[in-house]
Amino acid sequence: MHIKEGPKERHTLSVTVTNEPGVLARIAGMFTARGYNIESLTVADITEDDSISRITIVTAGTPAVIEQVVAQLDRMVPVHKVTDLTLLGDHVERELALVKVAGTGDHRIEALRLAEVFRANVVDTTISSFVFEVTGASTKIDRFVELMQDIGLVEVARTGIVAMARGKLAI
Amino acid sequence: MSKERSGANILIEALGDLGVELIFGYPGGAVLPIYDALFQQKRIRHILVRHEQAATHAAEGYARATGKPGVVLVTSGPGATNAVTGITDALMDSIPMVVITGQVATHLIGSDAFQEADTVGITRHCTKHNYLVKSPDRLGDIIHEAFHIATTGRPGPVVVDIPKDVQVATAPYKKPGTIQHPSYRPQVKGDTKLIEAAVEMLAAAERPILYTGGGIINSGPAASQILRELARITGAPVTSTLMGLGAYPASGDQWLGMLGMHGTYEANWTMNQADLILCLGARFDDRVTGRLDAFAPHAKKIHVDIDRSSMNKTVRVDLGIVGDVGRVMEDMVKLWKARQHPKPDLTKWWAQIDGWRAKKSLSYPTSTTEIMPQAAVRALWEATHLKNPIITTEVGQHQMWAAQHFDFESPNKWLTSGGLGTMGYGLPAAIGAQLGNPNALVIDIAGEASIQMNIQELATATQYRLPVKIFILNNEYMGMVRQWQELTYSSRYSESYSDALPDFVKLGEAYGWKGIRIETPDQLEAGIAEMIAHDGPVIVDCVVAKLANCFPMIPSGAAHTDMILADDQVSGELDDEAKALV
């Protein structure tokens, strides 16, 4: 006997929640409990009084699973609103990464040149290393990290994706 | 500003304000301040169980039989972990319940203190919501909010974990007004446009069926009444899940019996051949649908449910209406009448259904020497149904036989663990139901294996003078496990024999119960009469045919049309695909 799985889609969800202890565990736990994927998850409070957090989740699954993910999130007590940005249409996704590269001589010059192409900022430097700050779509960051591999990549830290629908309306 | 009082007193005050009459609980170190506060008041009665799991099932039984939320009070650590099974059970069956757990003092949390467990962590996935109360200032509001969440929308269990120092520290308490929760707003009224569409689909259907579930019971007695009206004006056949039995009367002409794995031939074939399924407060559970790709292939499906996540979870539906099923049915009936839809002519459909009914799928082999378990349930029904008894069950064959052969005429009379399938549910649930209905006849139809899972609760019934009855169908097997082993594993009865059974009559007597043993068919009627006549708790050990199977049955992973009936050849081996399904 073999276990079969259907074709998957990638969806970006925006979830607003009451900023209370355990809310992130509740959301993340629901995904593991029901066997859903989390490809990326970011969270930060977005109100002046720290009352509401906005969570951006990138998940993958069959269309039926995505529909369930949204419904399961929506029924949770501290969840205010769930928006499937992928379903909504056009939206922007951005990610920030810190990329540490070590090297001297030509490698160092090449690293700087590539950073310029990618509009990455140098946020720390020693005579033998840089820390670059690069933002953009995840694919752009993937590419930047890939290029740095040959030049002297030391380590990477990424924020995960934040996303927002295009146009003038709020979610 | 009202005067300050301890967290424990705030809790008691809030519970009183919420109309709580009964708490099922067990004391321990981390709830001593609450027990002391309980000792000094008279408004709330505490029922001392013998195990925390039983407290949760008793609360479920009380809730299911009365429509009011069940309340549980247990200590930290093992008190809370023992309650987890019943909390999960309540989540699966949508039972309103509030569980108060003690916790170690806030400064000890996370230090692996004595009897510390991460209760909110452990119960996060088996509650509708849970709270860790960090200050007595918030306690009153949280208790009120917990009841609001447990009882509204799709009901469920809510855990409130209260550290011991919060029980002792003081704060003012004021009864809050109507709760306006910032994010939790269940949708009660269904969308009018969708209801209109549903009514038109129903009026146009040639082969409709009403597939009803526990949501109708949860919606309240009025929902059962409006279901009867909806069935009357549409003339459609009615079936129900295990959890929905009693919403539509079993004596009704349009009643097909329960559907699903152990449902009737007519209920399952009517579902299979229908052109319209109106699902009312049920959730297309795997026990109902059987093999999904063969489930009701010709039917348009309308789903009415208060929980949006129930829609399209397993079965794609054509029309989903989110709302309270009672309210939605009421709107449907009103609209049907306003549009002056005549009662549809379903003569052809009913002729087909009558053909399936003629199979008499609930028939079973008879015996003059042994008591057939089905006959025992039927005899119990014959002897008690005029008293409108409350029936609880454990889990297994006896549960299915009770569902098949005990007819229910009204809601809140049938208490069983459906979703989680918890052995040991029946006795504590009967205790809870009896406390909520002191004058009712409450019977736990049990198996000899299940009853032992919470047998310690015999003492609870004795202590509170509760005249609950236990009727054990004793076949010396974990019968449903044995049946599956017979059907799926060529009768290799691995660990399913109930060895070293106690003498249930003497066991009952040891706890102050009356014990009755019934061994032959001719003793059945008199034994049941003796049980009913006794004004006190009775345990009946009814010795039944050992190898009887529960039919009809749709094997795991099979379609409704692949149903096995009593006279079919059954023993054998199933393939791995089928073995992988529960």
Structure, explained:
The complex is a heterodimer of chains A (171) and B (582). Chain A contains 5 helices and 9 strands; from the N terminus they run βαββαβαβαββαββ. Chain A has helices at residues 23-33, 63-74, 85-88, 106-117, 138-149; strands at 9-18, 40-45, 52-61, 79-84, 91-102, 121-126, 129-136, 153-158, 162-165. Chain A is of the alpha+beta class and 171 residues long. Chain A has 2 domains: 9-88, ACT domain (Alpha-Beta Plaits); 92-163, 2-Layer Sandwich (Alpha-Beta Plaits). Chain A is globular. In chain B, strand 4 (70-74), helix 4 and strand 5 (97-103) form a beta-alpha-beta unit. Chain B has 22 helices and 20 strands. With 582 residues, chain B is of the alpha/beta class. Classes of the chains: A alpha+beta (171), B alpha/beta (582). Chain A binds chain B through residues 1, 17-18, 21-22, 25-26, 29-30, 33, 64, 67-68, 71-72, 74-75, 77-80, and chain B through 120-121, 124-125, 128-129, 132, 149, 154, 181-184, 307-309, 311-313, 316, 576-577, 580.
Task: Tell the overall outline of chain B.
Answer: globular
The CATH topology of the largest domain in chain A is Alpha-Beta Plaits
The main sheet of chain A comes to: 5 strands, antiparallel
List the quaternary state of the chains. Answer: heterodimer
| Helix fraction bin of chain A | 25-40%
Second rung of CATH, namely the architecture of the largest domain in chain A? 2-Layer Sandwich
Given as residue ranges, the uncertain stretches of chain B (5+ residues, pLDDT < 50) are none
Order of helices and strands of chain A: EHEEHEHEHEEHEE
DSSP E strands of chain B, number:
20
Separation, N- and C-terminal Cα atoms of chain A: 44 Å
Side-by-side strand order of the widest sheet of chain B = 3-2-4-5-7-6
For the sheet with most strands of chain B, the description reads: 6 strands, parallel
The number of helices of chain B is: 22
